[in-house]
C-alpha cells in the first residue's frame, strides 16, 4: 500500500508580519503522480490549501525582540500545533517549514533580530520533526523585494497567467498581472513591464525561472520594489508626528485631525479617550471628519518631492519603469482589500475598483459623528468584524490608499477620468464590464481568487513545488530567481533559500561563472556560510598535528628547531625561529651552560658547574665512590661549607653528570682525570674526586 508521504507533498510557511504571525499549510501531488494526468503536464504543480489550514496569532513576532527566549511557547506553539493537525504524521519529516519575517522584523535592531531568529530556529529543531536542513535559510527576514516577487507569483498562479497565455492575452504579447501589497509597515509593487520598458530597464528586472510538471522551464522578467515605512500603520505614525509638530508650535494641546470621525478624541498612540475620562496632560487628537482635508494632509507622505536619481520614479524617489496600464492590470491584496471592502463593501466582491463610488462612500462614513458610528458598530451595520479601532482607522487608511494608488503609483481614476464624456453611470458601466473582463481593469482589490486566499506565502510554495519537478533535460537551469543576466547569476536564489554559484554543464560556464578559487573563497568566507570557516580551521589544525607526528623523530626535531630555534648551551649561542617567542611565553628559555638533555635528538646540554656542589664522596669501596644523585643539584651557601671542595668543569664533565648518558664500559676505557693514584675499572670507580684531590 502506498502511504500518503509517497504520493503527496506538504509545505508549511509562517508569515511573520508586523501585526501577527499566520501559518499556512499547502499540499500538492508528487510529480511522479501528477504526470499521470496528461492534461496538467504543461501546468505548474497544483497547490491546495483551505481556510481551516490557516491560523493567525497576535501580536507580531517582532514584539519578542527583548524576550526572544519566550517566542517558542508563547507565540509559535499554537501555530505548530495547528499545522500538525493537517500534515499527516508520516509526511512530517519530508515537509519543509519556513518562517519568513517581513517589515516588522526589518525594523528591529540587528542584535535583537539575530537573537530572535536563533531562538525560533532552536524551537523548530527541538520541538518539531519538520524538514529543516538549514535554519539560516528556512528562518529568516526576507527583503521587501522578495516578498513582492512571491506575491506576484501567487497572484498570477491563481489567475492562470502562467498556464493559459491565450486566455489572458492583454495585448502586446502580455499575459501576466501586476501585484500590489500593503501591510502595516511596508508596501510592494511587482509587474512585468511591456517589451519596450523591459529592454530599456533590463538591469532593474529580476529573472524568475519556474518548471512545469513535464520538466520544462519558463522564464519571466519582473520589476519588484518595496517602500519601507509606506505601510498603513507606519504612514499613520508619520502623519501623527507631522500633526504634532505642526500644532505644537501654536501652543495647542488638542490637535484637530481631519482623518478621524467628528468629535472622536484619541491619544497620540491611538487610545480612545472616553467622554468621562479626564483629558491627558499632553497632546491628544480630536476628529473633525473632513475627508477632503484628510486627503490633502496625507499627500505629502508620498514624498514625491524627493529627488529621483534614476528616472522615472513614483514614490520616495524610488525608480520604477513606466507602467503601461493598457497591458499592466494590477491586483491589490492586504490593506488594499481590507480598506476598500471591510466597511465600504461594494455590490460584489470581485467588482472592479471604482474611484468615484469609493470616495463618495468614504466621505459619507467619515463625516459622521463618532457617536453615530459607535451605534452602527453595536448594531453590526458593517458586519460582525468591525470594531471601534477598525472604524476610526479606516478614514486615514482610505485617504492613504487613494493617494498611494492614484498620485503615487498612477492608477487611472476609473469612475472619473474614464466616464466624464459618457452619459451612462460609471458604476453601472464597470459592473457590466467586470462581468466580461474579469481582472482586466487597471486595479482590482482581491482577497481570494477561486476561493483561495491570495498570499505571498503561496508564491513561496509554488516556487518550492516547481523546483521539486525533475528537469526534462539534463543540465537544465535551476528553478529560482536572481539578477537578470544570462545563465545563472551569482546571486541566484534557490527556493529553499540557497545560492547557486555554478552548475556543471549549465550555461553558467561563461562570464558569469566563478573559478574554483573564487568558489572556495565564497564557500568559506561569505556570510551565507557562517558556520563553515571555524570547522575548516579546526580540521586544518588536526591535519597539521597528525602530519607532524607521522613525519619521524628527526624531521620533527628539525621542524621544531626551524620554528622555535634552539636554547643557548655552554658552547653555542641561542638560535631563534619565527615562533621563538613561544619559548618565553612557556618558560622554555635556557641560560648558557645549564644541563638540558634533548630527548628527541639525544644531545646533552650542560649546567654551569659553579652552580653545583658535590657532597662528601669519600669511601673505601668502589661502589661508595659513585656520585650521589641528590648531590648533583645546587646547594645553598650554608650547606656548601660542608663540602670538601669544588670540581673543575672538566672533572664534572667526565666523572660526574655525563655518567648518566654514557655506559660504564665506555667510561672504563676513556676516563682520564689526571689522578695520581688508582685506576678506573669498567665495573666501578676506585677513586672519587675528593680522594683524587
UniProtKB/TrEMBL annotation:
Residues 679-693 have a biased composition (Polar residues). Residues 592-627, 669-693 are annotated as: Disordered. GO terms for cellular component: Golgi apparatus; membrane. Keywords: ATP-binding, Hydrolase, Membrane, Nucleotide-binding, Transmembrane, Transmembrane helix. It comes from the Eukaryota. The chain crosses the membrane at residues 533-551. Residues 593-603 have a biased composition (Basic and acidic residues). It holds the Pfam family GDA1_CD39. GO terms for biological process: CTP metabolic process; UDP catabolic process. The active site is at residue 147. InterPro entries: GDA1_CD39_NTPase (IPR000407). ATP binds at residues 184-188. One of its GO terms (molecular function) is ATP binding. Belongs to the GDA1/CD39 NTPase family. PANTHER family: ADENOSINE/GUANOSINE DIPHOSPHATASE, NUCLEOSIDE-DIPHOSPHATASE MIG-23. This is Golgi apyrase. It comes from Exophiala bonariae. The lineage of its organism: Eukaryota, Fungi, Dikarya, Ascomycota, Pezizomycotina.
Amino acid at each position: 500500500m502506498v502511504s500518503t508521504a509517497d504520493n503527496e507533498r506538504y509545505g508549511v510557511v509562517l508569515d511573520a508580519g508586523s501585526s501577527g504571525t499566520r501559518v499556512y499549510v499547502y499540499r500538492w501531488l508528487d510529480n511522479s503522480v501528477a504526470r499521470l494526468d496528461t492534461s496538467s503536464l504543461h501546468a505548474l504543480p497544483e497547490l491546495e490549501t483551505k481556510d481551516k489550514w490557516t491560523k493567525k496569532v497576535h501580536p507580531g513576532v517582532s514584539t519578542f525582540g527583548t524576550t526572544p527566549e519566550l517566542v517558542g511557547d508563547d507565540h509559535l506553539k499554537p501555530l505548530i500545533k495547528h499545522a500538525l493537525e493537517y500534515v499527516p504524521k508520516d509526511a512530517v519529516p519530508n515537509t519543509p517549514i519556513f518562517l519568513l519575517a517581513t517589515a516588522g522584523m526589518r525594523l528591529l535592531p540587528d542584535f535583537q533580530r539575530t537573537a530572535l531568529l536563533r531562538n525560533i530556529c532552536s524551537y523548530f529543531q527541538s520541538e518539531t520533526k519538520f524538514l529543516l536542513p538549514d535554519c539560516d535559510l528556512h528562518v529568516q527576514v526576507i527583503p521587501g523585494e522578495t516578498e513582492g516577487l512571491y506575491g506576484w507569483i501567487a497572484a498570477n498562479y491563481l489567475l492562470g497567467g502562467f498556464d493559459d497565455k491565450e486566455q489572458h492575452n492583454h495585448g502586446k504579447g502580455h499575459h501576466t498581472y501586476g501585484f500590489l501589497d500593503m501591510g502595516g509597515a511596508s508596501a510592494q509593487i511587482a509587474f512585468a513591464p511591456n517589451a519596450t520598458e523591459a529592454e530599456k530597464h533590463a538591469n532593474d528586472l529580476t529573472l524568475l525561472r519556474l518548471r512545469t510538471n513535464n520538466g520544462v522551464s519558463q522564464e519571466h522578467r519582473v520589476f519588484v520594489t518595496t517602500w519601507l515605512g509606506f505601510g498603513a500603520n507606519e504612514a499613520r505614525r508619520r502623519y501623527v508626528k507631522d500633526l504634532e509638530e505642526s500644532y505644537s508650535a501654536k501652543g495647542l494641546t488638542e490637535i484637530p485631525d481631519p482623518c478621524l470621525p467628528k468629535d472622536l478624541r484619541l491619544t497620540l498612540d491611538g487610545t480612545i479617550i472616553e467622554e468621562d475620562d479626564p483629558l491627558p496632560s499632553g497632546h491628544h487628537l480630536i476628529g473633525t471628519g473632513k475627508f477632503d482635508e484628510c486627503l490633502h494632509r496625507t499627500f505629502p507622505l508620498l514624498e514625491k518631492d524627493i529627488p529621483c536619481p534614476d528616472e522615472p520614479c513614483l514614490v520616495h524617489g524610488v525608480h520604477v519603469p513606466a507602467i503601461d496600464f493598457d497591458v499592466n492590470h494590477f491586483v491589490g491584496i492586504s490593506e488594499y482589500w481590507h480598506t476598500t471592502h471591510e466597511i465600504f463593501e461594494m455590490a460584489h466582491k470581485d467588482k472592479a475598483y471604482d474611484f468615484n463610488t469609493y470616495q463618495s462612500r468614504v466621505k459619507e462614513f467619515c463625516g459622521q459623528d463618532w457617536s453615530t458610528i459607535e451605534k452602527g458598530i453595536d448594531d453590526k451595520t458593517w458586519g460582525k468584524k468591525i470594531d471601534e479601532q477598525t472604524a476610526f482607522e479606516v478614514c486615514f487608511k482610505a485617504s492613504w490608499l487613494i493617494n498611494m494608488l492614484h498620485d503615487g503609483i498612477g492608477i487611472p481614476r476609473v469612475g472619473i477620468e474614464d466616464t466624464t464624456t459618457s452619459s451612462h453611470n460609471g458604476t453601472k458601466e464597470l459592473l457590466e464590464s467586470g462581468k466580461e473582463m474579469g481582472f482586466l481593469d487597471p486595479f482590482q482589490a482581491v482577497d481570494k481568487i477561486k476561493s483561495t486566499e491570495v498570499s505571498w506565502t503561496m508564491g513561496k510554495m509554488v516556487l518550492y513545488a516547481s523546483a521539486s519537478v525533475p528537469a526534462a533535460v539534463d543540465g537544465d537551469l535551476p528553478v529560482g530567481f536572481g539578477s537578470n543576466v544570462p545563465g545563472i547569476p551569482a546571486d541566484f536564489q534557490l527556493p529553499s533559500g540557497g545560492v547557486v554559484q555554478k552548475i556543471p554543464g549549465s550555461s553558467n560556464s561563461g562570464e558569469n561563472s566563478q573559478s574554483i578559487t573564487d568558489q572556495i573563497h565564497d564557500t568559506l568566507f561569505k556570510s551565507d556560510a557562517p558556520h563553515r570557516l571555524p570547522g575548516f580551521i579546526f580540521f586544518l589544525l588536526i591535519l597539521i598535528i597528525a602530519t607532524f607526528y607521522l613525519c619521524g623523530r628527526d624531521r620533527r626535531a628539525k621542524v621544531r628547531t626551524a620554528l622555535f630555534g634552539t636554547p643557548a648551551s655552554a658552547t653555542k649561542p641561542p638560535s631563534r625561529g619565527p615562533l621563538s617567542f613561544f619559548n618565553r611565553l612557556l618558560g622554555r628559555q635556557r641560560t648558557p651552560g645549564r644541563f638540558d638533555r634533548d630527548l628527541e635528538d639525544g644531545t646533552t646540554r650542560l649546567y654551569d658547574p659553579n652552580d653545583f656542589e658535590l657532597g662528601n664522596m669519600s669511601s673505601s669501596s668502589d661502589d661508595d665512590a659513585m656520585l650521589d644523585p641528590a648531590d648533583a643539584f645546587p646547594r645553598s651557601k650554608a650547606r656548601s661549607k660542608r663540602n670538601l671542595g669544588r670540581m673543575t668543569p672538566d672533572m664534572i664533565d667526565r666523572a660526574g653528570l655525563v655518567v648518566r648518558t654514557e655506559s660504564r664500559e665506555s667510561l672504563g676505557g676513556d676516563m682520564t682525570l689526571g689522578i695520581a693514584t688508582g685506576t678506573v675499572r669498567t665495573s666501578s670507580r676506585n677513586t672519587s674526586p675528593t680522594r683524587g684531590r
